[in-house]
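Regression report. Comparing outputs from two consecutive submissions.

Submission 1:
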Amino acid sequence: MANRDHETDLIVIGAGLAGLVAANVAAEKGLHVFLLEKQSNTGGSSALSGGCLAFAGTDLQERLSIDDSSERLFKDLREVGKFENDERLVQLYVDNQLATYHWLKAKGVLFGQELEASSGQSVPRSHNVDPADMIRVLTAHAEQHPNIEIVFNARTLRLLTSDDGQVAGVQYERDMSSFFLYAAHGVLLTSGGFCRNPDLVHRYAPQYDGAICIGGEGNVGDGLRMAQKLGADTSDMAYIKGTFGKHPTDHTNNHSMLAVYKGAIAVNQLGRRFVDESISYKLLGDAVIQQPYGASFQIFDQHIMGSGDNQFRILDFERRHEAGLMYEANSLAALAEQIEVPADELIRTVQQYNQAVEDLFDPEFGRTALVQGLGALVKIDQPPFYAYPSSVAVFGTYCGLKVNEQLQVVDVFNEPIEGLYAAGEVVGGLHGAAYMTGSALGKAAIFGRLAALQCAGMLSQD
């Protein structure tokens, strides 16, 4: 049965970080918001993330004497994306990132007091949060605001258009009933990616058919497909990439571990290096998927083990060790026996790498730094030695709908689809060929905030 129509100012589809930020900002600006969430709780993939947001020029960086700037952030984002990303969206991110950082802090989101450099960052700019706590804080604000109605277990079925083609609302399903909801200020898609849809992953990235797919349970591409039905264009679909560093049998921890960014090397089942380990972990994922069995090991020593940082999930070595996820031995030969790679090859690989570190020249893969040109390489020569099995996981699809600088979804003729906006993982164009740590959550918060201001008609005033 179809229930009576409802009307509101703005419809937001998906209650991850982008949707929660957008709903709160729109409500602050006086709009009445319906926030539709397919699952029974908020968070989506955002709550499962590593909790890093990429900001530049913050008070925290200043306190730690880290010299960063919007210009440097722009340069890094463009370079790590291999200039395949949309320069206008990169500039939009950069121009609005500090204001979004301050907005999050004002809302009570707590950032860790230490910073680390990670994938794609030429200086430390991963501002760390507890992602589940961040979602709880923003959800509490949304639930308490009189202008926001959160509707759980609400699956959006299709976008509704007026006679002139403008998006006017949505049809959604809840408790076996169908509802028609209309919005005066438009519909904002914050519905996430499609890593939970194997058919779509295969369509756009068949090389990752065998990869582990991790993300919000609702991330099956609903928003993408609804917009495509109206002629929406897409960006970055060719650059779906898995993330390096996921333990293949660890079902309690969905996050990658990246000892390579502290000096470890990656070897395949033959005991040989196959890549410059300092590059983006998305590009590392591409390299690993081409190795025998699509698998690898991160090899490191006690010095590198001691350089981990348990405030950052990707650098939390100790807890992985305590959980029994690492192999450990007092010699490389014994370690090779445990991980079933040829001992002579592993020993030779480590010796050649150590010589390259000493010579300041890596003849095999040209590695010059720990991560993105930052940090001096270190030898692997202090026992005990460790091996961490590392496969590839698709945590997010990092591609999606093409949008303009007003976060309007555009069609295949680059014309805006009136009344339809998008933010968060469903948006393509920012990342390009690879990915900077923190730019996915950063994009969700920044673009969610901007889309809400646009829908409220206040973007130029803020």
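Submission 2:
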Amino acid sequence: MQQNCYLSIVVPLYNEEATVATVIQQLVKLPGLLEIVVVDDCSSDRTPHILQELANQHPPIVSLRHKKNQGKTAALKTAIQRTRGSIVVVQDGDLEYHPGEISDLIKPILEGRADVVYGSRFLRRDTAICAYPQQYIVNRVLTAAMNVAFGLELTDVETCYKAFRGEILRKMPITSSGFGFEIEITARLAKIGCEIQEHSITYRGRKYEAGKKMMPRDLIAAFFYVFRFSVIG
């Protein structure tokens, strides 16, 4: 591991040709950066071509590709197992979350005050939550369910911005699929007693048609995972 380089960023991607270059170019500027592990979940647009060009320009980029589309959780699982950093941060390939806020997000971990930090969109009033209120309501209901089931006090369980101690995250078994990562990882962290903190972040949600949002089947699966991991394990 390179001296003073401790940060691994994992980026799951699917058809993000319009934004991925901007995101990566911002990530490579982060202090302490060790690697950016990108997993293209079998994109059908120009995302693979753009990633190859970026990887040629920036040595920290580790570019991987699924031969078939498997969903976000599968992409994250592939990426996480390739990380080496003492801190691992999840960054989406769109511009809804600003990479410039990662340094503040990971401070509680660097200072030994937390094992995990969630970037909450609901701790500040000036954040544009979502173009559709349904997504806001779904998130709040899921967060409340997780708080009750696992004795947590979170405000935004479905946030994509999550920072972890690397050794904890790499040991976590991930068995869910689709959008199940957020529920499963939170449940498993709570069960082993990790210190989870939240940090306010800005959020610029894309319109529903432009983003990969939870569908009704994903919502049903999410509540199933809440039940499964709280009762069955």
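Expected: both submissions complete independently.
Actual: both completed, but the second showed a warning that disappeared on reload.
Relevant detail on submission 2: The chain has one domain: 7-232.
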